[in-house]
DNA sequence: CCCGCCGCAAGAGCAGTGCTCTCTTTTTTG
DNA sequence: CAAAAAAGAGAGCACTGCTCTTGCGGCGGG
């Protein structure tokens, strides 16, 4: 039905949609999500603003499309960085993925802010974004799971009051992982984004100057924290 | 000069300024920074919008005032939580401060987003905010420094390429701290905000459900990471 | 004591925003 | 080929931050 261009009309629709997203992404990268304006996008594309609503019913829908693209772009960057070191040990792979996330964030600050900064108020991400959002997470889970199949995965502490939650968590995410590792993994995942966010949003200004080795070391210690050998 | 009300005029100015901030804070808490409108604030206060510019020359200046207040409120929450356990060990004090930060963030999500979420594009925090912003950091530094004076502070790893940066860092922040502890402290500080931010911004939705013990455990492991006994 | 000045408020206005509605043109489809 | 669906154009609404001009009224210096 909606697949490959049944007519010139459908093909044009795909092209215009892509052009809108492209221009919107340009404005997002240049000015940030708050300054992204439908009218400005339309103006730049030589169309009238109301015409744009035929393609995206609201500004939030455009933002949602950009969010999914951003998640995908980040996921792809992480995955290709991981593929390049797939033969190495879990630690190297972990650090490689973390480094890729940081590098992508530094290269696309506004996109990163869009997906991992404070959500635009009033806006609630629809379920559509979930698969794209999960890509980096799945990568990290895979690394820890692989490590768990091999030797040397450290024993991690797990307080009694956290055990039920940790068991539920690994049941959903990675059934072959010990609960303590699952909990540590999720915590490390959040902490990774704390490190990246602080650097990106200027919190390290005049505190950390040489940020590359600092991040590398922190990422390595995160690997410790999830018990990677 | 600018001190205690030289006349009724000056007193009124202080009161109106306070009323503006109060109403702005209400709107911030209810709707978030992006939806905070000068005109709406003025309307609610029964004044015309242009009059408000006599008190805050721009929307950004109002936001800056709210940011400082938010930092102060968070700092005070953390400090009073710390004071309540000042007699206990470094771990307990560390976890108490982390917990207070989380609790404050959950109680004031939009304020938290304002200071630790993605910065409003085009807006750059003036130097005025720095002292208020530093309060929680100073608290954490103090805990680690105290621990370092006592026994049991763990030896932390420090890669060679990070040493110069770590030395510079402790020279600025806490000269009596070993460089490795300083680097670990800054990393832990960032990671704390990663944990809080992920929970607050919905990234843990359907992943972590029982968040209180989860956070508690993660904060405890952060204490490990900075070598607290 | 009083007059002039300055702080303050009010109102109009500018340029911009998201979004809706109607009207016309163009293309697809039964 | 005619009816229906899709797309574009343009006007318009309610809102935003911000500026400018115009008046009013309390305060300080002569």
UniProtKB/TrEMBL annotation, chains A, B:
Q: Which SUPFAM superfamilies match?
A: Homeodomain-like (SSF46689), Tetracyclin repressor-like, C-terminal domain (SSF48498)
Q: According to the UniProt record, which residues make up the DNA-binding region?
A: 37-56
Q: What is the lineage of its organism?
A: Bacteria, Bacillati, Actinomycetota, Actinomycetes, Kitasatosporales
Q: What is the name listed in the Swiss-Prot or TrEMBL entry for this protein? A: TetR family transcriptional regulator
**By its UniProt entry, which Pfam families does this protein fall under?**
TetR_C_33, TetR_N
Q: Name one GO molecular function term.
A: DNA-binding transcription factor activity
- Keywords, A to Z? DNA-binding, Transcription, Transcription regulation
Q: Which InterPro entries match?
A: Homeodomain-like_sf (IPR009057), HTH-type_TetR-like_transc_reg (IPR050109), HTH_TetR (IPR001647), MT1864/Rv1816-like_C (IPR025996), Tet_transcr_reg_TetR-rel_C_sf (IPR036271)
HTH tetR-type domain segment(s): 14-74
């Amino acid at each position: 039905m909606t697949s490959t261009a049944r007519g010139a009309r459908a093909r044009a629709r795909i092209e215009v949609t892509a052009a809108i997203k492209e221009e919107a992404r340009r404005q997002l990268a240049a000015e940030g999500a708050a300054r992204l304006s439908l009218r400005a996008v339309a103006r730049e594309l030589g169309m009238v603003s109301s015409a744009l609503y035929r393609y995206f019913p609201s500004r939030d829908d455009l933002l949602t499309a950009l969010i999914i693209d951003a998640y995908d772009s980040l996921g792809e960057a992480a995955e290709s960085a991981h593929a390049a070191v797939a033969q190495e040990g879990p630690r190297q792979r972990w650090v490689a993925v973390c480094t890729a996330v940081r590098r992508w964030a530094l290269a696309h600050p506004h996109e990163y802010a869009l997906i991992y900064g404070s959500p635009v108020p009033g806006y609630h991400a629809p379920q559509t974004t979930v698969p794209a959002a999960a890509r980096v997470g799945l990568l990290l889970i895979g690394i820890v799971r692989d490590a768990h199949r091999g030797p040397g995965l450290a024993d991690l502490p797990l307080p009694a009051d956290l055990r039920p939650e940790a068991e539920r968590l690994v049941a959903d995410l990675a059934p072959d992982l010990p609960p303590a590792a699952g909990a540590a993994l999720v915590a490390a995942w959040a902490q990774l984004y704390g490190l990246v966010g602080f650097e990106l949003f200027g919190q390290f200004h005049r505190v950390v100057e040489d940020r590359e080795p600092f991040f590398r070391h922190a990422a390595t210690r995160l690997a410790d924290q999830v018990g990677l050998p």
